[in-house]
Amino acid sequence: MVCHRPAVGHTMLPPCAPAPHHAVVPVSTKPADPHSPITPSTPTSTPHSPTQSPRPTSTPTVTPTIAELDSSPPTSTNHATSHNLSPPSPPPPIRTHPMVTHSQNNIFKPKTLHHATMASPLPSPKPTCVPQAIKDPHWRRAMSEEFNALIRQGTWELVPSHPDQHVLGCKWIFRIKRGKDGSITRYKARLVAKGFHQRPGSDYLNTFSPVIKPTTIRTVLSLAVSRRWPLKQLDVNNAFLHGELDEELYMQQPAGFIDQTHPSHVCRLRKSIYGLKQAPRAWFRALKAFLLSQGFFNSKSDSSLFIYNRGSVVIYFLVYVDDIIVTGNNISFITSLIRTMGHRFSLKEPSDLSYFLGIEAVSVNDGLFLSQHRYIQDLLQKSGMTEAKPVATPLASTSNLLLHTGVTLPDGSDYRKLVGSLQYLALTRPDISFAVSRLSQFMHKPTDVHWQALKRVLRYLRGTTSHGILLRPQQSLSLHAFSDADWAGDRDTCLSTTGYIVFLGGNPISWRAAKQRAVARSSTEAEYRALAASSSELVWVIHLLNELGIPVTDPPALYCDNVSATYLSSNPVLHSRMKHIAVDLHFVRDLVDKTILRVSHIASNDQLADGFTKPLPSTRFICLRDKIGVADGTSILRGRVKEGCVLVISAHKGEFETGYERGGQTREPVQLAQTLGVSTLFVVVNKMEDPIVKWSKERYDEIESKMIPFLRFLGYNVKKRSKGPFRMPIIDKFKDMGTVIMGKVESGTMREGDSLLVMPNKAQVKVLAIYWDEDKATCAGPGENLWVKLSGIEEEDILSGFVLCGVAGYKAVLHVHSVVEECKIVELLQQIDPKTKKPIIMNVFHSARYHPPA
């Protein structure tokens, strides 16, 4: 860490001085000397110490406390208050120019609306150095917790420094951990060694550490869902600190925690620490030794899978570094195992599986729904695509991406980052596998054409943020797969594309879209190479299932839509045009001869792997997407939201905020309204002439002060989470509101049934209904403010300031003031005066009850 010297006249918080016995030193308020170098780890005073002994000194057990950090007074700067009164400013000059501005005629440029979340005050930014971190109580507490864990583990011992020692540096890393709803769950400070200074051969030897394969995760989850087994999630605190080191390593004392009695000593590492190259391997070795001692055996198909199968007890243990999934048929054994493991390692509180490696897992009546909804939203936010217009497919069916097309991007780092993020997203989204595989082929030199194709994938995700894979309970755990190839689909290299998907019962567990490595001379050869790749995956899954105790008795079916490739897999012939692929030929044929699998022909219309090899038209793509297990969480998660949730929809494009009784809000697309989980969900729609999206605290308080009494009047008890309001009379004129715009007719007339044009995007729409004041009208003239329901507007962007024109001549008919889009309201509630029994006019809201579409 490098701290720069402050300029003369500026005060800077000096680094904390070390306290005796590793106590954290209170923050000093004395300004630093601008002419002296800044050393974050230098103590302010050094007591007299006895002569140093070469014998190692054990680390004291006294650890820093938050109270010591909080006891110091805050740094403050006193400013002199001036009492000099400035002379009054002269009055503004009187306007004499005859020009009239737009603002004087109440003509303003449409406001640009942005997303805003009122969930909580913005968290303090992540600090960049130790002095900055110590100023914030959250980060002080996080640093103390990390240091305490290091001391408890006996991670190091202090020894005198020696010129022959290769001492590694260390630094503090600060992270904010969030839950699946985006809320802050933990401020995390991590002390890491500067492992990039380690010397190979002396400081480390082997560094490889396995992680669980995605296919293994989906396979085990599918088995657990089918057998109704519990799914538990474990997280190990400071996992890397449990690993034992074989090498002798030295590290500097951590900044802010220097031992005052031995300030020049260094830390001789007894155990591994984050940042070391061998730390993941050391941790996995320690965990493996523990599990083997408990009766587990290590899977040969996946080194990060451990299986316990004794008597009638079957337990699966999946490891991804320090994130663990446990499932099995004996909950008492699982509880006992977790308790025993907690004595050996420091565990967080075990919980049901809900959020694992960025994947949201939700148990539903139909099984287990896996999605990366939050990950997609963050990805769209980072790429600035939150307001992008959705499309039906990731790639256009006519797209033909070439290597040398378009203008090369000056900086391709953003392209590479986004494609890398999409690769991780494909863990639960097989529908984007081909698009991601295709875009990954241009990582080294992306162009503007490739960038536009990448943005189209993001636009597709914009409309399918709630999609994921649904693992349903299966009566039969039969194994089958679909294999396909696109012959010479790559125009640059003439290489073919392989695509396959493997099902366990009806659940997808493995899929792939990849370019073949050799040029195929015929479509049969391309299909046969795809069969070889699919067969390899099937054989591996068979071995995995056998280890899991699921013997595959019937040979799995491998479906291919190429007749010639199907015949080649079973007939003992060697065609002259297929001699050069004899290895793959004999591999597939050997599997068929031994009845390990069977290759069957299938019609092209029934080929489920078609979308893994080429871009498809929207109708075909959506049909296959539904068949390969990708589902919309909007309908799956319906009714699973918390009771007592109030949904507020803005008048602009259906954006909304959810207000829980605990005071937090989370922004979501309106299509996910039913996934928020109330049995009775209120929708409060802003008046059309007051479209507010970016709410301030004052605005939210104003809304809450008017909304909560209204809901209570309807019989809704926020604290008790009652099931909903009393039925109130329905205002029929907005009962089937649908997509509505509000605007003012400028010229001509507008009639029900007219075909109009939206400018400037030239989208054609049809007028379905016109409301004027309190009545429904069939036509309207100039100067009238209208509520207009349109068709054809759902798939088009339309904002305040747009114009509806007559198709002929583009003559303006209506100026759009505001829009409600993507929101279906089927029942409106109006407050009734208890005395007069008449509806009370709401000046702020029209209130509605939301019914998700069937």
Automatic annotation (TrEMBL):
UniProt keyword Kinase present: no
Presence of the UniProt keyword Membrane in the record: no
Region (Disordered): 24-100
Domain Reverse transcriptase Ty1/copia-type: 155-395
Any single Pfam family the record assigns to this protein: RVT_2
InterPro entries according to UniProt: DNA/RNA_pol_sf, EFTu-like_2, P-loop_NTPase, RVT_2, T_Tr_GTP-bd_dom, Transl_B-barrel_sf, Transl_elong_EF1A/Init_IF2_C
Alphabetical UniProt keywords: GTP-binding, Nucleotide-binding
Domain Tr-type G: from-to ranges: 640-716
Ranges of biased composition (kind: Polar residues): 72-85
Domain Translation elongation factor EFTu-like, first and last residues per copy: 738-805
Domain of life of the native organism: Eukaryota
CDD domains found in the cross-reference section: eRF3_II (cd04089), RNase_HI_RT_Ty1 (cd09272)
GO MF assignments: GTP binding; GTPase activity
Sequence ranges of Low complexity compositional bias: 35-65
Family (UniProt): Belongs to the TRAFAC class translation factor GTPase superfamily. Classic translation factor GTPase family. EF-Tu/EF-1A subfamily.
Alphabetized PANTHER family for the sequence: GAG-POL-RELATED RETROTRANSPOSON, REVERSE TRANSCRIPTASE TY1_COPIA-TYPE DOMAIN-CONTAINING PROTEIN
Cited function: This protein promotes the GTP-dependent binding of aminoacyl-tRNA to the A-site of ribosomes during protein biosynthesis.
Protein name as annotated: Reverse transcriptase Ty1/copia-type domain-containing protein
Organism in which the protein naturally occurs: Rubroshorea leprosula
Lineage: Eukaryota, Viridiplantae, Streptophyta, Embryophyta, Tracheophyta
